[in-house]
Amino acid sequence: MNRVIEFLHLGDGTRNWLDGDWPTVVMGLTYGYIPFFILPLYAALERLDFRLLEASRDLGASAFWTFVKVTLPLSVPGILAASVITALPMFGDYYTNTILSGSPGTDMVGNQIELYITRSQEPQKGAVLVLVLSALLLVLMAYYLVTTARTQKQAANG
Fold first, then answer.
1. Considering only Cβ atoms within 10 Å of each terminal Cβ, which end of the chain, N or C, has fewer?
2. What is the pLDDT of residue 17?
3. CA–CA distances in Å: residue 55 to residues 9, 48, 112, 156
4. Average pLDDT of the chain to the nearest whole number
């Protein structure tokens, strides 16, 4: 990674990527969870009616505007599904940070829950964190369900 950064003249290439900084954890989370995002998004994009894309191009839209006006709106349910499928396990993730960093400066909610429940005299704080995290995820899931129901209703009506 340092060689690539140095080759692209983005820095001096002396960074230690496993020194406990947040970019290391973010790259690890991205690497670990990107398949959970790609698969539902691919399934949604594969189901698109390609005649709509052809029609957009035939009417003079550029590739960019075809994407913005046709592909992106039709892929919103897939993006939402991919986001939910990715976010649910990621919110409770504590091992990626522990393996890649181990630094208290990069702790995530999962790390705090694990700390309070397994290594603390205050497991009730861990339980409260679990409840708060569950409530947040419940709101996200409700939004996803309402949005997909609305999209299916619109598709059925016209």
1. C
2. 66
3. 43, 13, 52, 22
4. 87
CA atoms within 13 A on the CB side of 10: 8
pLDDT tens string 19-36: 777 888 888 889 999 999
| 109: amino acid identity, one letter | V
Q: What is the pTM of this model?
A: 0.71
Residue 97 to residues 21, 23, 27, 32, 105: CA-CA distances in angstroms?
10, 11, 11, 12, 10
Query: At the top level of CATH, which class does the domain 18-157 belong to?
Result: mainly alpha
Could you count the other beta carbons within 10 Å of the beta carbon of residue 27? 14
Residue 102 zone, left/alpha/beta (φ > 0; ψ -120 to 50; rest): left
Q: What is the pLDDT of residue 154?
A: 81
Distance from C-alpha of 91 to C-alpha of 83, rounded to nearest angstrom:
12
Output the pLDDT for position 156.
82
In sequence order, the 6+-apart residues with CB closer than 8 A to the CB of 44 are 75, 77, 78, 79, 81, 82
Which residues of the chain have a pLDDT value below 70? 17-18, 158
In degrees to the nearest 10, what's the CA dihedral of 113, 116, 117, 122?
A: -140
